[in-house]
Amino acid sequence: MIRNYLTIATRNLYRFKLYSFINIFGLAIGIAFFTLLLLLIRHELSYDVHHDNAEKIFRITKFVERNSVVEKTASVPFPFGPSAEKFFPEYVKSTVRIFNFQVPSHAISRDTLRFNEPGFYFADESFFEVFDYPLAIGDTALALNKPNFVILSHKAAIKYFGEENPIGKKIIYEDRYPLTVTGVFAEKDYASHFDFDFIASFSTLNNMELDTETLVNNWKWDPCWTYVLLKQGKSPEDLEFLLNKLANKNSPDSYGENVNIFLQPITEIHLYSDLDFELSANSDVKYVYIFAVIAILILVVATINFTNLSSAKSSYRAREVGIRKAIGADKYDLVKQFLVEFLFISLLAIILAFILVELLLPTISDIAGSELGFNKLDTQILFYSVVISGLVIGTLASLYPAYYLSRYQPSEVLGGSIMLGLKSKRFRGILVIVQFTITIFLLITTYVTGGQFSYFKNANLGFSHKNVIMLSVSNSQARFSYDSIKNELEKLPNVMKVTGVEEIPGIGYRIHDYLPSIAFTGDRKNWVFVPSIMVRPDFIETFDVKVVAGRDFDRTENDEYKGVIVNEKMVEFLGYDHPEMALGKQLRSRGGDEKIIGVVNNFNFESLHHEIKPFVLDMPSRKFQAFFTKYIAVKVHPEHRYEALGDLKTVWSQFMPNRNFEYFFLSDKLQKMYFKERKLVRVSVYFSFVSILLACLGLFGLSSFIVDMRKKEIAIRKAIGTTNWSVVWLLLREFLLLVGLAVLIAWPLSYFVMENWLRSFPYRMQMDFKVYVNTAVIVFLVTVITVSYHTLKAAFKEPTEALQA
Amino acid sequence: MLLQLINVEKTYSNFGIETVALNDINLSVNQGEFVSIMGPSGCGKSSLLNIMGLLDKPTKGEVIFLGDKVSQSNSSKRAFLRRNHIGFVFQSFNLIEELTIYENIELPLMYLKVSASERKKRVGELMERLHIAHKSNYFPQQISGGQQQRAAVARALISKPNLILADEPTGNLDSARGQEVMEMLVELNEEGTSVVMVTHSSTAAEYSQRIIHLFDGQLVTENLKRVTN
Ligand SMILES: Nc1ncnc2c1ncn2[C@@H]1O[C@H](COP(=O)(O)OP(=O)(O)OP(=O)(O)O)[C@@H](O)[C@H]1O
Ligand SMILES: [Mg+2]
Questions:
Q1: Which one of A12, A333, A415 has the shortest CB-CB distance to B111?
Q2: I need a labelling partner for A710 at 20 to 30 A (CA). Which of A11, A207, A252, A476 fits?
Q3: Where residue A146 falls among pLDDT bands split at 50, 70, 90?
């Protein structure tokens, strides 16, 4: 019997080619994009689950809060991990620290090969006790157990050693320390928040310039990402409590009691963590939900296409149903028959979907900014994803038409040669409305997310970054010769201003504590936390920050010790009505008694996701200025940026002959902060396009059926003298009405959703109602174009043909 | 007795308009009978046939088929009885366009779950007998009306039903083809199958043993006659 069903299914597919094409292709697109989103979601959820003990691994994070300014760091001091292990052995099975001097890159060389490597880390010997990052070559028990050992990633091994076996060979760290390769990691086939190319043994640090004091007793500096492996059955909350006490006791008195320790499950880092000093920029679970919603919307649109076309086409099958019933088939036989038939169509769609997925995977991975390469994906998972989503969509889409078809009564359909009208018109209408509501919604989403993203890109941050080139010097000797470098740079024709900073303006800052004069009682409780960065002279001119009151830093005035500059928010925070009033007021820092010498405008010192807060610009004391000079910022001539870059490189190699030139344009870096929004824009552009495509395919098919059904009516109207154009209008009207209703539903819906989304940003674009008008116009135009092919064809046909039938 | 209708009424209601198609019909068909139903257009012939063929339920009254009361049986029960005991022939042939002649005739046997080899044998024999074997692999639209109707008769016969219901089987055929079909029905009837046929043509009605006249949903007269002479 199945054979009979399939025979008739194939012959029907062949007979109604347009319908078949639209149904199969539409379904395939639906399946393919649904699958792609599933893969994306699965990828997002798969971070760090590959560790055997994933459930028991926690990262120690530290929150310090005062006057509602919270410093949230993903890393903790050197002694934290070892102390936790020492004092709480009943809870802690093992800990591991990861350290990288908090610098953006490390110089690694081998013979003539020399690169600045961002993925270089030191890790405790217990690395493999806690984590499971599989080795391709090497022994996990031995690879990190001695100083000057290093394990390379698969990628790094190829980069430095090509086809050679690197084991036992050496690479040079920062021109001074030879490290012996003791292992190579297997090619990466997992997702992790920790992405690395080199893991060197922690004991290597003992031979470097870090003093033992720092390594053992410094509870102030937080440079170590520290992970705990809990013992079986122990609750993280209990350990958290104990670690809190440990931290309170050991942290410096000035903030010890403000410290809070949180244990973060390793599997939640990628989607939930957004702290300072993350190992890598994490994603956000919000986007997983958004992808899931889009996946469901695409599924709905694809399902509706199938349902609508199949039920519209069903009148062509009514007679067959009647005959089969007269012969003695019952309802269930027919439901079975049509389910088999539709699943067969789904199967064809699944095959096509495979091809689509294979073609689209690279694009989607690229758009989503994840590395789900086809080769990296388990083909089995891919296979099941496509087949399962195909069957799910196929079944959902088949239920209604199968039920609908099986209901035809032989007494009604076998009577004569009457053409059956379109039944269930209202139901189909509702589905078209749903489809277009989704499409319009996605279009508006695209518009708004796109608008917000470009707002981010082009917003006036209150300082200029367009022509600023940043050189990273944090771990090189260059920072000790900062003044001579600045001197050399300023001699260059295209260099306009040079300064040095501790953090990248517009991206990062530190939290320092200050004692403002209004509360100057000596009571430690009144020290406040204020975001700030340490800068070298000429900061204000390099970044075109506006001085509202007072003056810029001046070398001759000993401002290193005596002067700070604050922003207007800080003036407000301190309780002064006017910037001028803040001038000369004391703002004691840990470095000494300082006074406010200037007030600058409120510029966005961190991403636009955050509102501008009180802020302090401070100059480091001479003793520490090298330590605080992590980047040299160079403002260059706007028309000669690239010439300037070449000159910078020359100066760089004079001062740092052994280190590769390392720079970035500040604007580029600033834009990268909005990578999540960018991802959202790209995904919604893609998927709203898919949704339009699907909806149009559906409408095209539907219009062909509807016109066919009404051809007799059209012919009669024309025979009695109706003009062609009023026939066109007659046919178009219905579709436009449906789309119009969809517009009316989609508008408030999108407004509500998008306003909510926008409201999560303190700085946001203005919602322009033109967006709504534009999307409606687009959708109406697309509808008219889609529907007019069949409509015009029908309207301009001579009526005789249809009337003779 | 094969089939009996007792006080059967059929009312259609569409958009609130009620149409009485059949009114208090009492009628029985015996095993081996050949009955014609005649009457003007719209008098309820097809409605009557649909009820006799268990395709439709009467609004009121009882239908007794092979001793069972079936007027209110569910659709599966009625489908089961149709599958096993009733064959239909229609004016517009109603062959499934996407199936070949062979496949059309074979279809009832598939619902009866007859084995493939048995099906092949029975369909083959029947097609030989009705002289359409050479059209076995043609699709309905590729053969003449007469051949289509013969195929339709073959499909009605293939399950060896007790009752054949034919709604104007000759309506779309010229007189020669019509006569062929009528002769086939008579032959079947002589083999013991009951036939109930709706027709407008008195020539066709001549082949039957009994003619029922229907007017405005009511049974007018029953003419008992013998044709065999
Ligand atoms: N499905 C239906 N819905 C509403 N009214 C119907 C339906 N089927 C038949 N009728 C009405 O019932 C009455 C009897 O119809 P029926 O088809 O039984 O007549 P008929 O004798 O077969 O006519 P014809 O010779 O034209 O085939 C007619 O008035 C018809 O309009
Ligand atoms: Mg009729």
A1: A333
A2: A11
A3: very high
